[in-house]
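Dock iron/sulfur cluster; give full complex structure.
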Amino acid sequence: MKISYSRLAEYSECPRRYYYRYVEERSLPKQSEEMVLGSILHDLLKYILTPALLPPTFQDAERRLRSLLSGKVGAERMAEAIELGRKVIANLLNEDTSRILAIEYSFSLALSKHLVTGRMDRVDRHKDGELEILEYKLHSQRGWRDNLQLVLYHLAAESIWHPPSIKLTLVSFIDNEKDSFYLKESEVVEGREKIINLASGIERGDFTPLRGDHCFRCPFYTVCFKEFPPERESLL
Ligand code: SF4
């Protein structure tokens, strides 16, 4: 089956939530301001770092920031969002763009009988041939090192560019901190199996609820607990 990594991530957190969202296509509440801000900063990343004959100036980028924020962030948070956006613009304009190989690079990767799609925020090629995949997040999150998305990027980069080595770097927009590391071969093999198992679970139609703390943030909490009341959970 062909599936995007973002859908696999949803399925991995809870197969039933995936079912409500993508099989039954139930509507979701409006995106949080934090998610809106994250997507605006990714837009700026692409705007500033995509190689161009005439790269944007700080003023160009700030104009774009203000127009992207308009109507999406409440008046009470606008000044804070502009301040943060200005900091991010200054940091991005300071980046060495000479080694950038790709920005917002979309790929499809065949894994067993599945085709998994994804998009890398940024890929750099260093002088020694090493590839660096940079994933931008709003905040620093060390827990992200264990994310299957990074394994998928590693596998995709290996199959597309065949580099001698692959470095993964998590970048925080807010603190401009970079956390770089390499995956062990065993982590790549194990992660690959997990990704294949997730896609196979969707293909089989296994949408068993996975209860956890995430249930309290779930937009389908009411329907799920009605359909699968706690007293019936031992039967699931
Ligand atoms: S309430 Fe919990 S178990 Fe039910 S769909 Fe949401 S996350 Fe899954």
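Observed: Residues 2-93 form one domain.
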